[in-house]
């Protein structure tokens, strides 16, 4: 398979979008893009509000994410900016279950996952599901955590708590 045929997938809530998310998006576009004719493709799964409520340890935390359409608009704007530097095309799909289209789409070649243990576990479970369904497993790409000025990783929770901004700068 040539790199021109590569489809890369990733997913999350992406709110608020921060430098850690940007690292995941760049990893996806770098994996899908190439030099020469043809384009790769990036599929970004955006967690639905209902799925966020089902998968949070405290379902009320899903309310902190904001409405799906607002999150989709922010992600779309971020993708416009990110995609401009690469040859790959992209699309946003709504995630309504934890496996998403990565479990069933035969055209997907690679998955970009956060280094968090939970994300890595899900990535390997997804490949188990794919093998059981007769699909080939996905390459798993994992960029390192992006850290804030204090050396701790950037996270949406830290941003919502007012500790750091989206770039990891400490807030007073």
From TrEMBL:
Catalytic class of the enzyme: transferase
Catalytic activity: (R)-4'-phosphopantetheine + ATP + H(+) = 3'-dephospho-CoA + diphosphate
Alphabetized SUPFAM superfamilies for the sequence: Nucleotidylyl transferase
GO function terms (MF aspect): ATP binding; pantetheine-phosphate adenylyltransferase activity
Span of domain Cytidyltransferase-like: 9-161
Keyword Chaperone carried by entry: no
Gene3D superfamilies: HUPs
InterPro entries listed in its UniProt record: Cyt_trans-like, PPAT_arch, Rossmann-like_a/b/a_fold
EC annotation from Swiss-Prot or TrEMBL: 2.7.7.3
Subcellular localization(s) per the UniProt record: Cytoplasm
Keywords: ATP-binding, Coenzyme A biosynthesis, Cytoplasm, Nucleotide-binding, Nucleotidyltransferase, Transferase
Principal subcellular localisation of the protein: cytoplasm
GO cellular component, one term: cytoplasm
Pathway: Cofactor biosynthesis; coenzyme A biosynthesis
GO aspect biological process, one term: coenzyme A biosynthetic process
Family per record: Belongs to the eukaryotic CoaD family.
Protein purpose: Reversibly transfers an adenylyl group from ATP to 4'-phosphopantetheine, yielding dephospho-CoA (dPCoA) and pyrophosphate.
Alphabetical list of HAMAP family matching this protein: PPAT_arch
Protein name per the record: Phosphopantetheine adenylyltransferase
Protein's organism: Haloplanus rubicundus
